[in-house]
Amino acid sequence: MAKFKPTNIKGANDLYSGTMFLKTDIVNKLEQSFRSYGYMPLETAKLNYLETLSHKYDEGAEIVREIYKIKDQGERDLGLRYDLTVPFCKFIAMNRNLKMPFRRFEIGKVWRNGPVKAGRVREFYQCDIDVVGDKSIAVEAEMIAMAVDIYKRLGIEPVIEYGNRKMLTQIILDAGVAENKVESVIGIVDKMKKITRQELEAELGKIIAKPQLDKLLKGFENPKKIDEIIELERLLELHRVSGNCVFAPHLARGLNIYTGTVWEVFDKAKRIASSLGGGGRYDKIITEWIDNGLEYPAVGMSFGLEPIMKVLETEMKSEEMSNVNLMIVPMVENHLIVEFTKKLRDEGISVLTWNDGRVGKAMEYADKGRIPFVVIIGEKEITSEKISVKNMRDGKSVEFGIKDAEKIRNTIRQEIWLCERK
Fold first, then answer.
1. Which of 116, 200, 333, 408 matches a 20 to 30 Å C-alpha distance to 4?
2. Is 395 left (phi over 0), alpha (psi -120 to 50) or beta?
3. What is the per-residue DSSP string for 39-92?
4. pLDDT at 16
């Protein structure tokens, strides 16, 4: 028998050290922001009946082929969720007594059994917000303004490109394109920024005639804005985020679920080219999915955790790779050390206790692990009730009383704050 070699499947990764700290920090900031805008937390089931996940799709649809399918012990067909939208639709359908409009946020893993390539993996997180039961342009503007606020809080200056599916469809129809070709044209036009002009014309030329092609491309140069776009721009100005927003008449966001406003977020500094998130209005999908005679207008947005992490990793300082504030190296066993450690933790300081006893190894561990402060406590320190807190960044030590947990906390926090400001 061949020797077992543990390995991850392609497209599924482990997160640890600085990367995990960064992810946790981003998720915490996202949750805080979502709550501050009145969104309620929701956790939907990761495992669903296959019929639920494939509902409204043909059996041969790509998204259905990418579902991770399993059977339970009762031979029932099940699958892992591939996004957060379908489970959300299920939730709305099962909870008809929800007060509308209903706002939710959800951050969780999804799985897709598809090809792995740059920017596409099999196991990843989605961070979604949705509002159901609100037809207003105001909720769209607020969501875009919230996105600007969130990305700035994360340390990213965003550029949000926005468009409208109704307007895009009208531009295409006005060019003389047949209605049955509109979706195909939208799929190509949506790639306008990603391909050359020659490639764009070549792809469009396969499905529409030259006169239509010329008229279509001219239509994007100075399009007449529909009322929904005019109202959105007025509200974005009201929210004072117009400087972060750019009108993009070609934008469709790929999926045909969108019925109105759509938008995508990019890093102004262009540290990565891919979008950092996006959203739009989808007034039909929940309505048609539930199909109970009622309307469920909806608008939602996804924040791309993986691309956000890629951007912030380029700026992440090595000092930020540990969440441990202080390491204690006890050379003796004494209740004062235990009490001192507990008081620091009660004061909000993250403390790691080194139990090896070898001071040299402890200092090496702290240095490599980017732990900013170290305290060595032996008989001398116990007797005098005085300790020296060593700053690993500059090598200097400051003396404190072993019971001065609050003073030590303030010193540590001040030093960490100064380092973050540099």
1. 116
2. left
3. PEE----SEEEHHHHHTTS-TT-HHHHTS-EEE-TT--EEEE-S-SHHHHHHHH
4. 76
